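Hmm, what's this shape?
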Amino acid sequence: MSDRTSARTRRTVRTRKTAGERRTAPEVPTAEEPPAAVPGAGPRRFLRAALARIPLPLRGLRPRLLMSFVLVAMASSLGTGALAFREARTGVLQQSQDSVINQFRTSVDAVAPHIPIAPNQADLQSAVDQVLDTNRSSGWRIMATYGDHRAYAPSAGFVELSPEMLRSVRDRRVAVFQRMNVDGRPRLVVGMPVTYTWGEGLETRLSGLVMYLEVPQTTEEGYVEAMVHGIERATLVALCLAVVLALLVASGVLRPVRALRRATRRMAAGHLDVRLDVTGSDELADLSQSFNETAAELERTVRELRRLEAQGRRFVADVSHELRTPLAAMSAVTDVLDLEGEGETGEALRLISEGTNRLSGLVNDLMEISRFDAGAAELNLDEIDLAESVRRTVAFRWRQEQVETRLPGPGELRARVDPRRLDVVTANLIGNALRHGEPPVRLTMGVRVDGAGMAWAVIEVTDNGPGIAEEAMPHIFERFYKASTSRARSESSGLGLAITAENVRLHGGRIRAANLPRGGAAFTVELPLHRDDTDNEADGGTR
């Protein structure tokens, strides 16, 4: 009878599914699914929608740098950890598997020569007991099969074998292993067919006897869990380092950006001499250098413009001053000639007189504007009855039917203002309404208290004309601006509303223009009142 030997095999690594795993079929799109969208359109829309939901403080450069570093660190840590985990897990399980298989093969080789070619139940039980005796401390469970016979050690019962494993040990002459989860615990199952040979160098054949081993892999699973915990701790450390590094980098990047922001705000406030310190040779240094060059050029340009503007103002003031004396003499002469002229000579003298008066008024307006530009305009404040002052202005210049007034009673609205400048404001607004609007021109005065408790004297002048064109509204208080080009040679000099606005601002007040819904223009002046300026604000006239 020939000697029985265990199979000498070439070990091959096969990938097998565990008992708990299942294959799932790929999803097949149905006819009800919508057609495919343009590639990349969905992610872009999703990204825009996600960015729109981010609060504004989190869209700054620091949060973005911090998030970028954290994402990169997380991706690197998880990627490196996953690769290290896979390699280490494979190494641990491979080493454990090889050790168990080699030890099991050695034990079977020692027992196989003593097993008959056609063993019975007792032979199988003896064989599994001998194998278990040599490896009792390893927690092994042994099963031997031959035909319908089954033998177990240390007790009856064995893990259910998969059909793939049963087929492999029946048809192959090598050891077969499979990892399983039994009640949530990992186990390694090894199937080793016993072979025999007839003579020297003859073909090895299967004997029909198969030895099975079931061994727990709790220790190996503990090693794997320890690796997972180690990777988690390393990832947390990497994230903390990434956050620190991101804060340092963000601080270095944002420092020149903050300096640029402060310099820009100072420049916007009028400090054109602001400059940045240029350090380094990176893009931020180039940006700082470009800012300095821009600021220097802007400062030079503004200085030149201010010089030219000052020269223009000085020229206008000098010319106006020089014209004032001869115009006064010319006005006196034309006044005398107006009384003596008759016929065609008198008509010519009247035209000269009108032109001289217009030129004299223009010179006076230019002188007034020059005083505002030079900062020489002063208020001669006096406590007066506003309604009475406005009433005298209207009565001195226009007939009663030309201007409708609605003013408070005598003594009801008093304030400290410059009477001459208030007269100019009232006269210019009413004169502008009579020249460019249609009667009736209405003037109202009252008191308004704003939300902060500040009292304002409100003067409003309205007319029934066509109103102000929308494109002219932003320029209505500019100097020499005329809303209609057809009035380029009108009696108006284009300085009346500009002087009015300057006088109102000199009092700390406000002026605005608007169109009425029913037609016509409305000019509203608001002059600040103090609590002691009026004793009866609530009883003042209405607007």
